[in-house]
Write a structure and sequence with these properties.
The protein contains 9 helices and 17 strands. The chain has 352 residues and is an alpha+beta fold. The longest helix has 16 residues, at 175-190.
Length: 352
């Protein structure tokens, strides 16, 4: 069995901006190829790992991409302008070390902004916006940047290392949604020698952070009868928030989603997930999120409609380079997904 810390570290430190998930895709395939019956890659780069069974089709999904940046302009003096890929808060960008992914190499740089010493007191009260920032790679001219191989459109990721903070808390970049990928890998390990009464599709999607694009296409291809998305979700249990604003909390178990901005969970699948969590006696949280969404937003309205559940691992500082999650929540998410998949018997359970 793969060690959880080693798995999370490798997945976290691997780079995979939207539309450029090549590195993470190779690692995912390496982990799953010997514990499923077949692995394929579709035209958008989604990985489809198949465990053969009966005619009923069940899909579990987690996305491979991470929030990132993209090269948008190169100044004559060698500074590089950029745009966001996914929802990024400008407040977390200043002085971040980044990697620009050129065709042949990776270029290190740092995000800069006009120095404090040149700002007025009024300016200091304002949050710098992305169009005021730039990346410094140590070059002194546009030609020097171009000699490094940097071009417009090159993706940019954060240069952060995975860290174990305490016995049960870890921190790293891209845990949204590499933690979900890790859950699926661990569940596939548990199910390796289990005969299921249905065919299981474990799907690792592309371009979730820029519009659920990989999930939209792969769901149309697979056409599952039932689907479950494994994600990370906002844990806002931090000092500036009151308990009613927490959404979820670290250490309180996986979040079973009732609703978000893209989906209201179908009643029967919600009841099924809750009943399983109660039966196996794990802690869980019911989540209502008025903002944000997951691949389920695209999956559940594909074709004629697909009953879709979302189970998430709470994580602090979502969409930043330094997410924190609790390993107990991770373990309980693995237990819940495993129990859900073992207890699916027929399609009728989830249909009106």
């Amino acid at each position: 069995m793969v060690d959880i810390i080693d798995l999370l570290k490798k997945l976290s430190e691997t780079h995979g901006p939207p539309g450029r998930e090549d590195e993470i895709r190779k690692i995912v395939i390496d982990y799953v190829k010997n514990i499923v019956d077949n692995v394929t890659i579709d035209p958008l780069g989604n990985v489809i790992a198949l465990k053969q069974g009966g005619n009923l089709k069940v899909m579990i999904a987690a996305h491979m991409d991470e929030v990132a940046l993209i090269t948008s302009f190169i100044e004559d003096n060698g500074f590089i302008r950029f745009s966001p890929m996914g929802g990024i808060d400008p407040r977390i960008l200043l002085s971040r070390r980044v990697i620009i992914h050129t065709k042949n190499r990776k270029i290190n740089g740092v995000i800069g902004v006009k120095p404090k010493h040149l700002l007025t007191e009024e300016d200091l009260k304002k949050i710098p916006q992305i169009n005021q920032m730039y990346i410094d790679v140590g070059a002194s001219s546009k030609s020097e940047v171009e000699e490094l191989g940097v071009k417009i459109g090159d993706p940019i990721t954060f240069n952060e290392m995975f860290t174990q903070l305490t016995q049960f808390r870890v921190m790293g970049k891209a845990l949204d949604d590499r933690a979900g990928i890790a859950v699926i890998i661990k569940v596939l390990e548990l199910l390796k020698n289990v005969e299921l009464p249905y065919t299981l599709y474990a799907v690792f999607t592309t371009q979730e952070e820029v519009g659920l694009r990989g999930a939209t296409s792969v769901t149309y291809t697979v056409n599952p009868d039932i689907a479950f998305v494994i994600e990370t979700t906002t844990a806002a249990d931090t000092p500036e928030n009151i308990p009613s604003e927490y959404i979820t909390e670290l250490g309180k178990g996986p979040a079973i989603r009732v609703m978000d901005a893209t989906m209201i969970t179908q009643q029967k699948i919600l009841e099924f997930m809750v009943n399983i969590a109660n039966n196996i006696k794990i802690p869980y949280q019911l989540q209502v999120a008025l903002r944000g969404g997951t691949d389920a937003g695209a999956i559940h309205i594909s074709r004629g409609g697909i009953p879709t559940g979302v189970i998430s691992i709470p994580a602090r500082y979502l969409h930043t380079p330094s997410l924190i999650l609790d390993l107990n929540d991770f373990e309980n998410t693995v237990k819940l997904i495993n129990a859900i998949l073992i207890n699916i018997k027929n399609k009728e359970t989830f249909y009106f």
